[in-house]
Amino acid sequence: MPFYRSVGQIPDKRHTQFRQEDGSLYSEELMGQEGFSSDSSLLYHRFRPTAISSSTEHRPEKAEPVANHPLKPRHFRTHKLNGASDAVFGRHHLLSNADCRISYALADQPSPLYRNAIGDECIYVESGEAHVETSFGAIDIVQGDYLIMPMSTIYRVIPTGTEMLRTLVVESTGHITPPKRYLSVRGQFLEHSPYCERDLRSPEEPLLVEGEDVDVYVQHRGRGSATLWTKFTYAHHPFDVVGWDGCLYPWVFSIHDFEPITGRIHQPPPAHQVFQGPNFVICNFVPRKVDYHPDAIPVPYNHHNVDSDEVMFYCGGNYEARRGSGIEQGSISLHPSGFTHGPQPGAPERSIGADYFDELAVMVDTFRPLELCEPALDVEDTNYAWTWNRDPA
């Protein structure tokens, strides 16, 4: 995270005696990235964060993904997925490679306590609301929020309100950060960035929960690229942090606070980038003024990103370039490397003269091919690949 924060009670100097009312020491925990060479935070626990009373294997149901073969563009209708559960074990895995996994979750109940020890997570809220409890404190999320959850943070998601919580989840094998080009060498957002520190939210006070023999589910690395699950039972509830400080913590950014970069002619996706991860980027397309050159064609040109698979999640408004393709609210399209894609037939002509697009979409571009998971194939629109072959509507 690009700036320092301090929440709750902490001692004047790090790594010094910090005592509870009964005279015992608080347990200091350094949570840091890249060994001791990158961002970190110091957390102060009432109990030992190392004290577990059991460790058991957990085996959630899973199916191996398959290659996108024969190669073709795909369209998945996430609103046809069934089985509301919680925001962790209710994730329907859709697409994956060695760098990330993209899932969609429908949640109407609290999740268990959970820790992803493989990488950071980016959770985008399509609809609904939730109260997210973490070791760093609690934070509320609503429609349009991105929640960046650092690797190995213990958390749980509690849906609130009456609407189903629908989330798109990108699980990374590393760290998800703002693009480096938006930041100074010391980590401050620069003037050309489409968002800044004022737009970010994070926990503001400690969260203390009593409890003993508390289960936490941990997703962690196995042999090679294998993913394993373990259930730890902690002697005391892990939400016992009285204070913390540092530059590593969960944070939230709303897509509605993204200030779009526009120009006289069509701007490419890097102008819409919001985050970066290992071998992938996340962009968002928001309501905005469009190209103002007198001869501009506002919708995208046909393009073939030879190094990338492009995933687009359509989560609001009207996506003019895809009219006639079957794309709808909650749709996910996959345009793989090896396929030239672009606007639907008739879209370039229709867009001429437009001065505003009312669209909301989240894009994930990966630099390794994505494979298809079973839930995606269950809700695939198998006619999508041929929609460019139709006459304009």
Automatic annotation (TrEMBL):
Annotated residues that bind Fe cation are located at 303, 309, 341
GO MF annotations for this entry? homogentisate 1,2-dioxygenase activity; metal ion binding
Which domain of life does the protein's organism represent? Bacteria
The entry's keywords: Dioxygenase, Iron, Metal-binding, Oxidoreductase
List the Gene3D superfamilies: Jelly Rolls
Q: In what residue span(s) does the Homogentisate 1,2-dioxygenase C-terminal domain sit?
A: 280-388
Q: Name one Pfam family in it.
A: HgmA_N
Which SUPFAM superfamilies does this one have?
RmlC-like cupins
Q: Which family does it belong to?
A: Belongs to the homogentisate dioxygenase family.
The name this protein goes by in its record: Homogentisate 1,2-dioxygenase
